[in-house]
Each structure stands twice: as C-alpha cells, then as structure tokens.
Fold this sequence. Notes:
By secondary structure, the first copy, chain A, is mainly alpha-helical.
Amino acid sequence: MIPRYSRPRMTAIWDSENRYKIWMEIETLAAEAMAELGTIPKEVPVAVRARGNFDVARIEEIEAETKHDVIAFLTNLAEYVGEEARFVHQGMTSSDVLDTCLAVQLTQACDILLEDMDAVLAALKKRAYEHKDTVMVGRSHGIHAEPVTFGLKLAGFYAEFDRGRKRLVAAREEIATCAISGAVGTFAHLDPYVEEYVAAKLGLKPEPMSTQVIPRDRHAAFFAALGVIASSVEHLATEIRHLQRTEVREAEEYFSPGQKGSSAMPHKRNPVLTENLCGLARIVRAAVVPAMENVALWHERDISHSSVERMIGPDATVTLDFALARLASVVDKLVVYPDRMQANLDMLGGLVHSQQVLLELTQKGMSREGAYKAVQRNAMDSWLNSKNYKALLAADEEVAQFLKPADLDKLFDLGQHTRHVDTIFKRVFGE
Amino acid sequence: MIPRYSRPRMTAIWDSENRYKIWMEIETLAAEAMAELGTIPKEVPVAVRARGNFDVARIEEIEAETKHDVIAFLTNLAEYVGEEARFVHQGMTSSDVLDTCLAVQLTQACDILLEDMDAVLAALKKRAYEHKDTVMVGRSHGIHAEPVTFGLKLAGFYAEFDRGRKRLVAAREEIATCAISGAVGTFAHLDPYVEEYVAAKLGLKPEPMSTQVIPRDRHAAFFAALGVIASSVEHLATEIRHLQRTEVREAEEYFSPGQKGSSAMPHKRNPVLTENLCGLARIVRAAVVPAMENVALWHERDISHSSVERMIGPDATVTLDFALARLASVVDKLVVYPDRMQANLDMLGGLVHSQQVLLELTQKGMSREGAYKAVQRNAMDSWLNSKNYKALLAADEEVAQFLKPADLDKLFDLGQHTRHVDTIFKRVFGE
Amino acid sequence: MIPRYSRPRMTAIWDSENRYKIWMEIETLAAEAMAELGTIPKEVPVAVRARGNFDVARIEEIEAETKHDVIAFLTNLAEYVGEEARFVHQGMTSSDVLDTCLAVQLTQACDILLEDMDAVLAALKKRAYEHKDTVMVGRSHGIHAEPVTFGLKLAGFYAEFDRGRKRLVAAREEIATCAISGAVGTFAHLDPYVEEYVAAKLGLKPEPMSTQVIPRDRHAAFFAALGVIASSVEHLATEIRHLQRTEVREAEEYFSPGQKGSSAMPHKRNPVLTENLCGLARIVRAAVVPAMENVALWHERDISHSSVERMIGPDATVTLDFALARLASVVDKLVVYPDRMQANLDMLGGLVHSQQVLLELTQKGMSREGAYKAVQRNAMDSWLNSKNYKALLAADEEVAQFLKPADLDKLFDLGQHTRHVDTIFKRVFGE
Amino acid sequence: MIPRYSRPRMTAIWDSENRYKIWMEIETLAAEAMAELGTIPKEVPVAVRARGNFDVARIEEIEAETKHDVIAFLTNLAEYVGEEARFVHQGMTSSDVLDTCLAVQLTQACDILLEDMDAVLAALKKRAYEHKDTVMVGRSHGIHAEPVTFGLKLAGFYAEFDRGRKRLVAAREEIATCAISGAVGTFAHLDPYVEEYVAAKLGLKPEPMSTQVIPRDRHAAFFAALGVIASSVEHLATEIRHLQRTEVREAEEYFSPGQKGSSAMPHKRNPVLTENLCGLARIVRAAVVPAMENVALWHERDISHSSVERMIGPDATVTLDFALARLASVVDKLVVYPDRMQANLDMLGGLVHSQQVLLELTQKGMSREGAYKAVQRNAMDSWLNSKNYKALLAADEEVAQFLKPADLDKLFDLGQHTRHVDTIFKRVFGE
C-alpha cells in the first residue's frame, strides 16, 4: 500500500483514528453488556458513552512507554472517563478488542470492495449492451478463430466479476465474527452474553469458538477471495492490453486531450493503466500464501500472524480497491474502434467461416474426408495467395455440387455467429 | 501426486479409463440432444449407446499419430460404433469435451473430499466429546496461560474443518458447469439446448458464458478452497506435533504394538504422520498461485492453463484426499494422556489462576494497583522459589483482607474455566 | 511430473533403481572409509563391492513389512552380501543415506539442466547471428516504438539464459554436499573422515554442519534458481506467442508439413508449444514457496520437508528439463518472417523515427518547444490521415529551415538504430 | 513496510529525497559523458554540478500536472540550472534514469542488509563459542534423540546465515547494472560510452543488453535471495520459540526488568519477538512470486513490473532489515538456561545413550539381534517404570558379559557426543 495506488476512503479504514474509534465502541458495548448482567456498575457504560474519548498522539505517547497498545488506549480512555474506567475491559483480553476490531475493519473494507465491484459490473454491462452487436474476430491462441461480438466478450467478464462479487459476499461473512471470550477463549472471566451483545450491535456473529484469537482460516479464505478477484482484474486488463496493440488497435484506454503518451508519436498511446492493473493484481495475490501460512498458529495462539496482517490487511484491500476503481474507469471510458474490429475480421478473406462450410458440406451429404479436402484446398489457396475465400469456393466444382451461391452467402453470414447473443446475454444479465 | 501419498479411489478419477468414460458419456448425451433437435439422425445416439466403446491402448496408438487426443478418441469410438459415428461431436470443439470432463472429474474428486472431511469431522467430534472435561493448560505463545479442556481444543478444530467443508461445497458448485458451446463459445454450430441437456444429465449447470473454455476464475477459487483446507490440516497437525514433544507428551500418534520408532529408544515415538501432513499441506497449497495465474488467458482462450491443470488437478486432490484420510485416522486413534495434561497444568503451582485472583481482588474493592502488586508479589515468589501459589496468597496479609481461604479455593477451582464448555459445544456442534 | 511432460533421462534419476544404486554406493564408500580407519573389518567393503546388489521388488516387499525404506534396503543388501553386511551402515543414520542421495540426484539433475541450458543458448546464439540485421519494430507497451533487430531480441534472451545458467551452476554448488554425521550430526558414532571420504568420492563437499539432515536453505536456494529460469522460459515463450498473433505474424513455431492446427483453417497455426511453456513455468515456480517453507525444520530435524521434496524434486527438475528442451527446439526451428517484420515496421509510415527528428531539430538549434510542435504537428497529420511522415516533414517550411532532404534521409535511415548492434553482440557473446 | 517494522536508515533509501538525488547524479554523470564525447556543450555538466538542485514539493507539484515523474524532475532541475538544462537527458529515456536508480537503491539496500547479516553472524558466533560446551538434548521430530551442545546448534545457524550472506553478495551483483541505452535499448540516440561512464562512476556494471528496461530476471533472483534468508530467519526464530516453551524453558528472549509479559504471571514471558520474526519472514517471502511474475514483460518492455517493485522494493528490504536487526539482538541477548538444558537431557534417565550401547554391544561381538533385544528390554523397563537406565544395564546379566561398569560409564559419557565439536566449529568458523 503506497499513496500512489491508494484511495482515501479505504486507507481511512486502516488509520489509527478509525481503529481506536472501533476499539472504543467495542469496549463501550462490552461494558453495556456487563452492566446489564450486573457484573459491573450500571454507571460505567453511561460514563463511557458520555465522556469516552481518545487522542491518538496521547495514546502513542503512552504506548511508547508501556509497549502495549491496548493498555495505552485504556489508559488514555480513563483520562477522559475517570474513575468508572477501571471497570472497562474487565475479564477481557487484548485480542478480544484487536480481533473484533479487525473483523469490523475487514467488513468495512469489504463493503467498499463490493461497491467497487458494482462499479466494474455496471461499466461492463453498459459497454456490453452498447457493443452487443459489434462483431469482431474471436481469437484462440492469439490466432483468428470465428466471429464473436465485443459485447459478448464484455458479458463474459461481467459473469466473471459477478462470480467474484458473490465470493466477496461469502468472504465477508467468513470474517464478520466477534470474539469476546477472554484469555484462552473459555469465557472464564466473563459471560458469553457479552460477546453476543457486542456482536449483535456491531453487525457481526459471535465466533462459535475462539481461542483468544479468531481462527485464521477465516482470514485465509478472505484473502484468497481477493486473490481470485485480482486474477480476474489481470484477465480483463490483459484483454485490453492485447486489443490496444499497434497491430490490433481495436480498443484503447481513454486518453484525455491534453495527455501525452509519447511526446512526438501520436500512436504511442500506451495501455499503461491496464499494464499497471496487471502489476497490482500480482501484489493482491501476494497476500494469499502468507494468509494461509498464518492459519497454523501454535496452541491457543501465537502472534506470528499479527505482523503479516498489519501489512496485508491494508495492502490487499487498498490495492484491490484502487485497482477495481481504475478498472471500472478504464472499461467505462474505453475507446472502441468497430471499424478496426471489422477490418481485422476481414483480414483473412473469410477464412474464419471455413468450419461452417465444412459442417454444411458434411450435412449436405459429402463425405467427411471429401468435405475436409475441399475446404482445405481452397483455404490454402486463399491463405497463400491472398484470394477471396468465398469466391474460391463458389468456383470450386466439387463444392458447387453441394453448395449454391445462396448457401455460401448464408454460410458466410455473420448472423450465424451472433444468433445466440441474446440467449447468452439473458443467461449473464438475467434479462 | 506419487503413489506413496495416494489412495486408489481418488487416483482412479484421473485415470485414462475414467476420462474416456466421461468423454463417451458427454458425446453420447450431446448426440441425444442433437437427435432430439433433429440436427442429426435419431439412430446416432442409439447406435452410440448400443455399441459405443473405447480401448485406451488403441486411443494412445492413434494419438501418437494424430497428436490430438479428442480426435484419437473419436476415431476409436467410430471403430466400435460404425457409420453413425460421423455425426458424433458435430459442431462441437474439443474443449467442449475436455472442459466438461474436467468439471465432472473435479466434482467427483470433490465428493470424495467431502467424505474425507466428514471422516475428519466425525473423528474430531467423537474425541471432543470424549475429552470434553479433560482439563489441560491452554497455551498462548507456547507459554502456559489458563486452563482449557482437550475437548474444547478439538471442538475448535471441528468448527474450523466444518467451515472448510462449507467452502468445499461452495467450491464444488463453482466448478460444476458444463460447456458445449463450440469454437469460441457462440453456439454458432449447435443449439444451446445441447449444452443444457448434457449439463442436466451430468448434474452440472450450463456455463452461462464460455469462450471455448470455461472461465478459469472458477478453478482458481476451487484450488484456493483446497489450499485453505490444507492450511487447517497443517494447523491441527502442528498442534499434535506440539503435544507429542518429549517435554509435553500430552498426546501421541497411535503406534501399533509391532511398530518401531527408534529400535532402541522406546520414547522415540515420532509424530511422523503429522509432520508428514505439514509437508503435504505445503504441496496442496502450492497449487493455489498457479491456478490463479491460469485465470488471465488471452482472448477467447490460450492453452497455457492446460499443462498446469494436468498436474495440479490430480496433485492437489489426490494429496489432500490422502492427507485428510491420514488426519482422520490420526485423530481417531490419537493416544491421549490426561495424567500428563494434569501434571503440566500443575507444573507452575497454580500460577495459571493469577488473573482470576487479580480480578476478584479488584471486584472485592482493592485498588487495581494494589491488587496487581499483591498478585505479582506472590506470583514472583512462587515462580522463583517454586512455592505453592495458593498457599502464599493465603498467607499474604493484604490479600487476606479481601479473600478468605474459601474464596481462594473457589478462585483456584478449575470449574471456573470449564463452566462454559457446554455453551461452546452447543455453538459448535449445535447440540 | 507426468509422462506427457517428461523426458526419460531426467525421470530415470528419480527411479527406484537409481536411488538404490546411489544408496549402495554411499554405503560401500562409507564402509571403505570405516575399514580404512579400522572401525570395521577390512573384508566388509571388499565383500560389498564384490557381492553387493539389490532387487527393487524385494526391497519393496521388505519395506511393506518394516515400514522403513533404508532398513529394507540394508536387509536386501545383506541377502546378497552375507555376514559382512552387519558392519555396513554402522554408526550412520538413515538420513545420512537419504540426504546424501538427494544431493547426488539433484546434482545429476542439475547436470542435465545445464546441458539443456546450453542447448537453449546455442539455439538462441545461432538464430541471433542469423537475424543480427533483420530489422523489425521494437515495442514498448505493445505499441510500436523504434526499430530493433530480431537478432538483438534474441541476444537479450541469450544474455538472460546465460545468467540463468550461472545461477544454476551456483545452485548446483549449494546442494552438492554430503552428510554422514549420525543421529544428530555430532559424529558421535563415526569419524568425520567417513563423511570426507564419501564426499570426495561422490564429487560432493562435506556438509560443514548437518543436524541429521542437510540444512534446507540449500534446497530452497536451488528451487528458487529453477523458478527464476522458469520465469525466463515464460518470458521468451510470451515473446514468441506475441510474434505469432495473426495480426503480427512475424514468427511462428515450426509446423511439420503433416501437422494440423485446425483442420480447415491454414492460418490456424497456434503457438501451442510456447503456450504450454508458459503453463510449465507456473508449475516449476510452484516449487519455490514450499521449498522455502521447508527451511524452518524443528530443532535438529523434523520430517515435514520429506514429502514435499519427494514431489517437487522430480516435478520441478523433470518439468524444467522438458520445458528447456522444448524451448531449445522452438527457438531452433522458429519460422521467421522478415517481410512481415518490415511490413509492420513500415505500418506507421515512418512515425517510429519521430524522436530522432526531434533530437536533430534541437541539435540544429531549434528550441525544444518549437521542435516538439513541428514534430508533433506532422506526426498527427501522418497518423490521422495515413500520410507519409517523411514527405510531410520535407514539406514543412519550419522544419525545412533546419533539415534538408538529405538530413531527413539520414534520420529515417535504419542504420541509426542498428549501428551499435555489433557492440551489443560483443557484450553479450563476447566475440 | 509499515513504521512499526521499519528502520530509518533503510526507509531513507526509498524516500523521494534519495531517489531524486540519485536521478540528479545519473543525469549529471550522463551529461559529463556526453560533453566529453562532444555531443553536448562542455558547459552543461559544469552548470549542473554547480547549480543542480531539486525540491521534492515542487517536483510533486509539476508531476500533478504533467503526470510524468521524470519530466517533472527535469523541469524542476532546469529551474535551478537554467538554459544549459535543455541538453540534459538528451537521447535518454525515462527508464534509463528509473532503472539505473533502482539498481543504485537496491545496492544501497543490499549493503545495509549485508551489515545486518554481519550483525546476526557476529551474535551467533559469540554465543556459539560461549556455549560451545553447553550440553543439551538434540531433538529429532521434537523427541529427545542424542546430546548436542547449544554452541553446535548456533554454529549450524551461523553456517546457514553465512550461506545467506554469500547469496546476498551474489544477488547484489545481479542487480548492480546500469542502463543508459535509450528508447528500446539500441543506443540509437546516444553512445554506449555514456552508459559505461555512468556505470563506472556509480559502481555498477553496464547492462550488456537492455531493452529500455533492465531485464527482470535479475530482480527476481534478488528477491528470491531475500526470500531464502527470510526462511532462515523463520528457522532460527522457530528454534527459539521452541526452546522458550514453558515445558522446555532452555532459553528465553531477553526481558528488560520493567517489561511486562503478562501483568500477573511472571512465567508469561512470551517469545513475541521471534513469533513476530516468523510473520515478517512470510512477508519478505511474499515478494518472491510477484518478482518472478515480473520477468515476462511484453516485447521490449511493458510497465506491469513497476507497481510491483514500487511496493516489494521497499517492503522486502525494509522488512528484512528490521527482521535481521531484531534477530541479531534476540540472539545477542538471549537468556540461556544451561541447568534446564541439563535437566531436560537427564529427563529420560540416560535413554538417549541407548544407541551408543547398542553399537558397543555389537562391536564387542554380541549378535545384532541379541544386542537389540537387550538394549530394548532395559530401555522399556526404564521408560515405563522410570528407572535409571544405566543401573538397569549394569544389572543385566547378558549385558554384563560384554560391558563392564567402566564400559558403561564410558558409553554414558557425554564426551562421546562432544568430541567432534571442535572439528565442526573449525569447519564452520574456519578457526
């Protein structure tokens, strides 16, 4: 996470300010529950609500001495609240605050990421419908295959990001749990009701079984979900980079009028945003293995996961947020060149229709071998000598026995390839 | 995947035999649908059902020539079926067969993994209830903290594996899709109905939008789910390795009477199974990043993912199957030493109860600072001079003002730590 | 490692046959050293040399009973050698045999990989010289930049693989150590001379300090070196895939006359080999993190690394061997289309020379801003209206003040871009 | 990289200040070389040396407009230098500055890391000699095996970190190259001499063949070397965590008198530093795969690697610097408990000597089977009934035929296990 690839809304989640704010809410809610149970005086939560406050600089000052962040926070809190503060945090362990806070931060981050996904999806959908019928060549192995439409391509990415969104919703559920269970998770010094109360108020679920810490398989699953989404970002970014190649030039990242790619070469509009997205994807993905290595904590807990999460928590969410926002904008403003698409499609003189011809010849009764030879003979002639493939077929006597010019027209009709676009759109967009 | 860490039921899924069997079913079902639509003669699927067969050796022979596995298969199939075979596979592309087959194999693999998870869960549950009340020391940072029970520990792992199971169910759904959509996924040469028909018969869903291939974010999510489960395997295995250390010796992997650890040293019962599980976890996890790197295929597809999947498909599923089966057996037969657990718990003369004393002193009205000093003063004396902590507290005049011997008995009562075990078990096991 | 991506010479290294052969050599050499020291009778190594033998099936039979591979081997060896066999392996631990054997296997594997690298280097060098002066457009961001030559491109890859080779030599040295140091590496039951003797005879160095096992940072460094080479394989393979795109078509993987890409479409020569290489690179790279996770063994050793190495040892070396051999062949037989390179270079009507014009205008005294405007004005006109850039510049009055037609010819001369090719070749090839 | 795990000396390398300082030096040196060649006026480098300066805030201001960091820098530089600045950077491309700067930063970082390694090595050596003869039990699989010394253990780590240091030296050489070769690396607009001159002055080597960018296999190898060192950090940290376990307590991280582990439990000295080091190792290692994924840039370059390096460059070096410094301090101040080591060694009543007894019985002529039975019979009795093993052997009639009490004393003498410590120390420390 570096400023260059960060957006303030997401970085704010990981600020000290937000963290202490969440801590205070957790402590206050826990005090409310304890007061309700009669474990601590009723006045305590009232006092904390009334006078509770914190000062980041002051906390850091105290922490420099005590070397303990939660104690520093509580000391500072007590400076505002006064005498009642001694009942705050009673029976709790630091991890109750830290892990529940992380859960809140990750759900907050997740909510932004879900909005980001929605923006990507909206852009993809808009552009998909806009180019539903914009024909272009489909490419397998980077080699021309058969026609598709640009809208179809985008619809495929829509479906992919939609799956990513669903995984994100599931990932959010994974990490949205609250633990207020004490030193080793046994509720030895406080009632499970406290956890239930705090969880409910924070929109979390009580962690069924914590061991001072919330189990880290949850976080591993969370970061893995981000890693898969990052891979989809790389997928779409790679597609655009390909389309923008000088020789292909079917689409381009938007260039503002004043923007310079290369000062002197107007064609030098580099797909720097999507290249950048490919790099960012690698960074988000880099969080996955460390998060998995964090799972095997020793016994009831060790603290090896903590430094990892202090870094990958912000890194992965901030970077993915930035990447998704950038991607949505790239898609939204992508400059599409239907003429170039058509030109590339026509580049090979109709050879992309050869499979269709082959099928039809077989259907019409020609032997598979015969059909294959006829199709290939003319394809080779067209390819090597840059002749029009349809004309060659029309002139081929053997072919003519099975296919009339009108048949050929039908076979070379792009409609053959686009007739199920609506079906696919309905599947993808449900409408 | 190597024989040493493989089980035949899972490896069979990845055998040529099973692969061709699935291919034949896909081709047959597709032919049925096409015949139903009238695209090909009604006799075709009938003939294929009646005479369809294949011979692995013969296919390999043909493939050696044609360098194309699906064509080799179809040629061999035709040798059994005869003339009608020419209508088989019409309008389809090899990937329609390959990707749908992979979906079937992965779901088959998933079903075994789900059974494996059930076995692990069953073993954990059985042993958890058996040791629900077997007290032992809880350890944070490898250092004695407060008491837990061995049953609680296992319940925590049950909850973790239960989450893993849920992720596996979701992962299964991710990859259970069928693509019969032709060269670039446009259904240019066949009707979407064929895909729907085949999908339904195979227990899959039609892929909403394929591009010759099923999009690889699905597979990335699948392998990521396996990676998280593998990390949980490492988690539990690490726990057992710790418990089996010579100095701890609270549990041991089962040793058959005849088995030799070290010939001459009877204490040399090495936790080799759980150490092995930690290694296997690394292998399963190694599939995650390549699977994510597979997502960004070029345009409608390239074939870079194929070699990766040919290896990680079997590797990850076979290894995880083996690991889970081994883990279930380790848990099921784990030799537990409650006496050693009690002995370790008592090792520090009751110091594990100091937080409870501290809390109670505060509750009884002693100042936090005073309580802390009293608790620590006696704790240090106990620790440095190996004295009984409870006795020291009883003899401390300041403490005595707040706590009577009966109070101390209550504070040193393990019941304090186990009173919520039932609550937690209910949360975890739902009963 | 699967047969499809394996070559017999490398897989043979990982066969039982080779493993037991190495074990026998280690045991025999160790016996020779011990006999020399007088620790065991002189007859022992003589007998083992004379009658020592093994039978893989028989060893497996014994292992099925004893569950211990080294004991099974020794038992079988004794069946051939007789009475003297009881002195074999004296004071040694199984790991002495296993780890030293792995060192031998990895150096054997490394030697093949070094040959593979030599083949790649030879192919690159040959083709680099062949196309030293074959001009083509250089591309940054996939967008035309300035001219390069295809030979230069290959020279760059030569330099990269040459670095990979050096790393491989260093990696070989890392893992070429021998440990015969007993149960915990203290030589408690045998003399360090035994290790020195065996090491020397096997072409290894004695491990300065083993702890039953050879430390695993060595292996981590080894697999990391393979991972970097695999990434270079991906790099070169990606380059070729790009050059083979339909729209670029500057080079193609060799297609044998009989080979079919797509049956009916002659242009459908898919870069399947290089796509495959990209996948194989991911697999080799997947060994890196597990190998690093293997480093942190517990105390003097645990056995978690073993299962990992049983898989990644063969997987990474066999796959990289296959990949390098395939790559050498792809480069060697690559079909290059200089005409297409020239055509693509000319595609933009000389715009690739604009930076040169800009520089010259400044050199000739035009202000930077003025020069920039002049260059850009004409570039835009050329780009948008497909006009010849050089002609536009010649007709531009402002430009004409500084540049004569002859100057323009010089600026548009490709020689400007190729004049240092020899220098670079000398740097790379040292000749 | 976050402040909590950063040290100012390393973070300063990655500051804007340092980056621009390096840029200015590169531009100045390049100008000197060009002036020497006569390409630009002699006054230019003189002016830049005399008046060259920059202002970070001002550069950022300009960059906000131009969106180009190098242009912003040059503009700001011109504000200080004046007219002569127009000749600066002539014929160069931004990457010439950026990549050469990165090389300088990485070598600077490497130099600090080498010092860090030296500190770790010094601490290990000091403590190794201090505890050369401090006996303790060696453990395989976490189970008591045979005696070692604590000094030996540390010597093993010394050797491991010494290898890491050598790899770091090699890694430094990998990335210490300079590229001043223009738009696509052909020196089309400047003489190779410029690169040679700048390289020599900066202590770098000219990159034999750059393509606008320095090839990224170099950086991949660099980060891989850091990843292996990080794994060694994890290795040593894991060892210490094990030794500090409550039940083992043979060593402890130093606790300052005022420091609180747990307020009330004096035994609760948690190995938080070494746990933290395990987490930091995961973070450093996380840079390895992205760095490898960076290698396969498209054609002469794309910019996907840039965002990755902007993050992993600082992250990996800063985190490893912090980790090594922390590790050196942990080792240096580690509190060692020889009494506890002795107590644990004695825990099993001499069973750790059983292999020695077995060997000696065989040496003395007892049959292998007989010796084995005798050793095991007494070992089982000792183990199950907590009897003294040596006494049992002495009382065993069959054993007594071969071993006299004096023989037993010798066999139970720890000297047997420590007699080669000097040899090993000499191997490791060379003295």
